[in-house]
Design goal:
The structure is a single chain. This protein is an alpha/beta fold. The chain is built from nine helices and seven strands, in the order H-H-H-H-E-E-E-H-E-H-E-H-E-H-E-H. It has two domains: 94 residues, no CATH class; 131 residues, HUPs (Rossmann fold, 3-Layer(aba) Sandwich), CATH 3.40.50. A five-stranded parallel beta sheet has the order 5-4-1-6-7, with helices on both faces. The protein has a two-stranded antiparallel ribbon with strand order 2-3. Helix 2 runs antiparallel to helix 3 and helix 7 packs across helix 8.
């Protein structure tokens, strides 16, 4: 992993951690609390707002609404063009073991499972794409190919180990498939991530057919759905980060 790529990854990860909840709201709450202690009355309301925001994002209501806001475009997205000739599985994250080992993370494993099932039902070859996510780790695509072979008895025909983000997933995968005469793939990713991924493929004039993983059921507002839980806060964080990615891609064009 070269120094420039390592610095870029560290910068993006640090910025995301600082700006996105819960840390962003907690930092805001701490600053507001300090200002309130120094006599700024309005700052007390700001601190309360920040704490309430963290609690709200930890509820199933907030997590499901954020997920729905990302996924709702999939149902309305028309699919036209040549039939798919391959399956692309986009990487998500890695998991580090207690003894220093590294393997595919839970989200990546869900995508691999869905991609392997689609391969068995269609017979289409698989491409896995994801680069290095942290210094010292192997490319995630290599781990994905190993997991496909070991866990699902399914080979990956193409391994794209260099992509640092979704845009590069699309661009580098398109180059590899076009070299083999393939102009349309299925793209396997979580339903909340697919709209941004499909947009990245479209910007390269590459027809991508969505193969969503674990789509949500839509917003829910029952009584139990207002109970805060840590896993809901994590889900809200993923959804907010995805929205930041979509806004950035739209701005960059």
């Amino acid at each position: 992993m070269n120094g420039a790529l390592e610095a870029s990854l560290a910068w993006r990860q640090t910025l995301a951690a600082l700006l996105l909840p819960p840390l962003g709201l907690l930092l805001l709450g701490g600053l507001a609390g300090l200002l309130a202690w120094r006599g700024r009355r309005w700052a007390g309301l700001l601190a309360a707002f920040a704490c309430l925001g963290v609690l709200l994002l930890a509820t199933p209501v907030a997590a499901s609404l954020l997920r729905w806001s990302l996924e709702r475009e999939l149902a309305a997205a028309p699919v036209s063009g040549p039939p798919p000739g391959a399956i692309i599985i986009l990487g998500a994250e890695v998991a580090h073991g207690v003894q220093g080992g590294v393997t595919v993370g839970p989200l990546t494993l869900e995508r691999l499972r869905a991609g392997a099932a689609l391969h068995r039902s269609t017979g289409l070859p698989l491409l896995v794409t994801a680069g290095v996510l942290a210094a010292g780790d192997p490319p995630l695509a290599q781990l994905m190919a190993a997991s496909l072979a070991e866990d699902f008895r399914t080979p990956a025909r193409w391994i794209e180990p260099s992509a640092a983000d979704t845009a590069q997933n699309a661009g580098l995968s398109a180059v590899m498939l076009r070299a083999d005469g393939i102009e349309a793939p299925y793209v396997v990713s979580h339903a909340w991530h697919l709209p941004r991924a499909l947009g990245a493929f479209a910007r390269r004039d590459f027809t991508a057919v969505p193969a969503p993983v674990m789509p949500g059921r839509g917003p829910a507002f029952g009584g139990a759905m207002w109970s805060p839980r840590a896993d809901n806060l994590a889900e809200s964080w993923f959804m907010l980060r995805e929205w930041v990615g979509r806004v950035f891609y739209a701005w960059r064009g």
